[in-house]
């Protein structure tokens, strides 16, 4: 049997309006009366109607979060960071996975609007013009993770992918490597694809080194298998690079696995460097030199910006760039003469 607010009022010996005042915290009541009503709620097992309460209070207490994929540890760290802030401010998360499909992202944004999300956090691999238009029309505070958004009144939280890739590549050059390749993610991915590739190219150009087409592989994704296939392509070139920069750690792991299968040693034959410093980077053999940044901090900062917007700070319209660092481990060594 469904328990109603009428049952609670009857149990507590008060009016329905008094129960509503206590549950919605709309008007103060005595401690004795509040306790009597809350005891009745517990005894009857009454569950308040969340939709009705949100209409009365004019708030749902919900953040809508959209991430590209669920199996990537990077995004689980991101969500943990968002959750750490949402709990503090008593918000709850509605999480959806877009599978990197712009049409799905647009659909989810409309669903979140209809479900009356108070704010939205969007982690997108790319933002097309029609997506920006939808975001602009939503009328809901929004923070974008991973992309600098031009022409949209929404703050974003990013890392400097170009600079990080430049530093990773330049480190290989400092070790004496001159034949340097890259296994990237898909270049349609603006941040993790294009920006990291451009940083790689610019680092080579700054040292007057060539970016040889046969030493660059664009992957379909950011998986171990993409790294394996990419290293296979680089290995088919007439001359093998002595070092390879990979767009993420899982790509680097795939590259190492391929090299091992060919009887080549990392780092003795080929130095390999990754990006993200996922947990696997420190447990693979050899342990992976990589770029470290914090998805937890990125999620935490995005949620903080969103709560600031919801509490009246409407001037947050710029990209906030978080720190990164190069972590040197055993997968890279100086080029032997």
Automatic annotation (TrEMBL):
Keywords, ordered alphabetically: DNA-binding, Transcription, Transcription regulation
InterPro entries documented for this protein: HTH_LacI, LacI/GalR-like_sensor, Lambda_DNA-bd_dom_sf, Peripla_BP_I
Top-level lineage group: Bacteria
SMART domains: HTH_LACI
HTH lacI-type domain boundaries: 3-57
Molecular function, one GO term: DNA binding
PROSITE patterns, alphabetized: HTH_LACI_1, HTH_LACI_2
Xref: PANTHER family: HTH-TYPE TRANSCRIPTIONAL REGULATOR GALS, LACI-RELATED TRANSCRIPTIONAL REPRESSOR
The protein, known as: LacI family DNA-binding transcriptional regulator
